[in-house]
């Protein structure tokens, strides 16, 4: 007998911390859709697989982000692979496998103008779920993160966190394909064993009691590329083992580029920079303030302590000798 209803999952309440099974989401029964409900240019799809992604937790928060939050009562967002079961589109036929974003649902009507609706091409040696995994957004994330953001090259020492996950496992293998040496970090001994099977030169379980010591021991020549999938303690530890001019791919966070530097890197450009600064100063385009500690050299020690307490506005200096009293001014 044909199904009279289909299920969707809707957001029932916003979680305060982690998702609470049975509270955060609710199953909803909907009257079944049939071919007769389709308008021209639409397809009816039956979802085969739904992708679950860490980003989903963020979509439940009612805050500014790279996409709007899912609303209470709204169907949860998600990428799927689905089969076309009815079509009034010239682009898609019944039986086609398609990727798209119909969300957490058993069936959906999608317009063929929706750019997310794409024919799924399964390559030889592939399976249909690959279009959500290594050929889907996580595989592409690994690809661009490793090749474009990290610019991985032969001889690099690459560390990947969340290495046994969807993105991390592909990132590790791309780094190996590019001739890098790879250390994977993951959350169980089984994952560590699998990472070695994948070809990682080494792998560590971050839940081991002596993980920090092991991490330092396994990074003696420091890190060229760190591909971060999780943030937190492993990322902090990696910062402490970063080589000069290393590239950190912050895959789990926003589109930001964080670049450390020391002013000494610009020694050759000091003269031209001073010229421009002096010009701005002369033209009154930049303002400055100084906090000057009096009392001679003996006041320097206390002054330095006060620096860390924020005693200064603008530049902090000790008046070792007032200009008018200086030897130079008497010459
Ligand atoms: N920039 C982009 O466009 C983009 C696109 C896709 C994904 N991403 C990001 O890439 C990262 C990986 O996503 P994915 O879809 O491939 O997920 P995933 O790595 O397949 O799954 C998440 C994994 O993270 C690990 N994990 C969870 N909590 C952790 C914690 N507190 N500390 C360390 N590890 C933890 C778990 O593995 P363990 O057992 O190893 O802990 C878990 O299996 C996420 O941060 C995601 O947001 C970014």
Automatic annotation (TrEMBL):
Keyword set includes Transcription: no
Q: Which Pfam families match?
A: ADH_N_2, ADH_zinc_N
What CDD domains does the record tag this protein with? PGDH
Annotated InterPro entries? ADH-like_C, ADH_N_2, ER, GroES-like_sf, MDR_fam, NAD(P)-bd_dom_sf
Question: What region holds the Enoyl reductase (ER) domain?
Answer: 22-318
One GO molecular function term of this record is: oxidoreductase activity, acting on the CH-CH group of donors, NAD or NADP as acceptor
Which keywords describe this protein according to UniProt? Answer: Oxidoreductase
Write down the PANTHER family for this protein, in alphabetical order: ALCOHOL DEHYDROGENASE, ZINC-CONTAINING (AFU_ORTHOLOGUE AFUA_7G04530) (PTHR43205:SF42), PROSTAGLANDIN REDUCTASE (PTHR43205)
Under what name is this protein listed? Answer: Putative NADP-dependent oxidoreductase yfmJ
Please give the organism: Glarea lozoyensis (strain ATCC 74030 / MF5533)
From the broadest rank down, the organism's phylogenetic lineage runs: Eukaryota, Fungi, Dikarya, Ascomycota, Pezizomycotina
